[in-house]
Write a structure and sequence with these properties.
Rossmann fold, 2 domains, seven-stranded parallel beta sheet, two-stranded parallel ribbon, 10 helices, 17% strand, binds nicotinamide-adenine-dinucleotide
């Protein structure tokens, strides 16, 4: 059985991927500092440690198990926070990634799949966004993602570590049976926040309704977390078959406006939503959605659950049955 180290595997996307790895006969070991992760979300070996500050623990994990590949989710991921606390993002995302890459070199692990982000495209010109679109770094978080992609290029050139960098669009949705889902605190994403608003009397804050889009609200590409997790399995397979270091957009290839998302939450929940329109947030692009042709063609990946209704239904099932996330009994 293949051993896969999953950093950040107790987080939202990581835990879904761990489950899919297990369902496909692979043996994941999770390394997570549990700052945002939940040990209840996984049924796999978990080592609680921080990639940046617990180098000895990380070393021990590689000593104990011979890994065939690494999937690197661990990192801080809030765009807004990265502009208020850049040190946290530069320190943990760079040092954590570097410690991981160095340990891989020492233990001869040659394959890594890295969670990158569509945020590296910044203020997009042409839509849909292909992998050849210009890079436009508009926040510290995006800088750390892009720089680690570049660091991985050097680790390929110098140490022949092959990497797949998956540039995710907006991860969303939950396990279809509602047993696993998004449990971020604080939560910055529209779908969980709109559902939480529908389930309570708290108004939903809509940041800007005067964008130059069809209904004045931002347009995003929403990719179901199950499809996202599947992309990691495809990427591992690609590397195992000798695939070269490369990067891929992981999005569904279609955009929905914030208002369309809110309408879907109303439809699925059967509840009205009180919406407070607030000023635009700085750094929010008007419209972005992926050209996912490359991932489909090269990785053989195909999103299956990423229509908006399935996304919102699964997320609604999770949130309505888990008001306190993984701590709900
Ligand atoms: N959620 C999205 O829409 C999205 C979009 C693009 C990219 N990404 C990237 O995907 C990855 C996973 O995102 P997520 O939404 O599952 O986030 P998450 O916060 O739920 O998961 C990240 C996990 O990493 C752990 N972690 C963070 N820093 C660590 C460190 N230094 N050492 C060990 N563990 C650490 C956290 O405790 C958490 O469990 C992140 O790298 C994020 O930047 C996410």
């Amino acid at each position: 059985m293949k051993n896969i180290l999953v950093t950040g595997g107790a987080g939202y996307i990581g835990s879904m991927t761990v489950k899919q790895l297990q369902e496909n006969g692979l043996n994941p070991t999770v390394f997570d500092n549990l700052v945002y992760g939940h040990k209840e979300s996984i049924a796999a070996t978990l080592i609680q440690g921080d990639l940046a500050t617990d180098k000895d623990k990380l070393e021990q994990v590689f000593k104990d198990t011979k890994f065939d590949a690494v999937i690197h989710f661990a990192g801080y991921a809030a765009t807004g926070e990265s502009m208020k606390n850049p040190y946290k993002y530069f320190y943990y995302n760079y040092v954590g990634g570097l410690n991981l890459a160095e340990t891989m070199v020492r233990y001869g692990v040659r394959h890594i799949v890295f969670s990158s982000s569509c945020t590296v495209y910044g203020n997009v010109g042409k839509l849909p966004v292909g992998e050849d679109s210009p890079i436009d770094i508009v926040n510290v978080y995006g800088q750390t993602k892009y720089d680690f992609e570049k660091i991985l290029d050097w680790y390929d050139q110098i140490y022949q570590i092959k990497s797949v960098r998956l540039r995710y669009f907006n991860a969303c949705g939950a396990a279809l049976d509602g047993s696993m889902g998004e449990d971020h605190n604080p939560e910055a994403h529209i779908i969980p926040n709109a559902i939480k608003a529908a389930l309570s009397s708290i108004p939903f804050s809509l940041f800007g309704d005067d964008y130059p889009t069809k209904d004045g609200t931002c347009i995003r590409d929403y990719i179901h977390v199950l499809d996202l997790a599947q992309a990691h399995l495809k990427a591992l397979d690609y590397l195992e078959k000798g695939g070269k270091t490369d990067y891929f957009n992981i999005g569904v290839g279609k955009g929905y406006s914030n208002k369309e998302v809110l309408e879907m939450v109303k439809k699925v929940s059967g509840k009205d939503l009180s919406v407070e329109v607030k000023p635009r947030r700085s750094g929010d692009a008007n419209e972005i959605y992926a050209d996912n042709t490359k991932a489909k063609k090269v990785l053989g990946w195909n999103p299956e659950h990423s229509d908006l209704e399935t996304i919102v239904k699964s997320a609604y099932l999770w949130h309505s049955t888990h008001p306190n996330g993984y701590l709900s009994s």
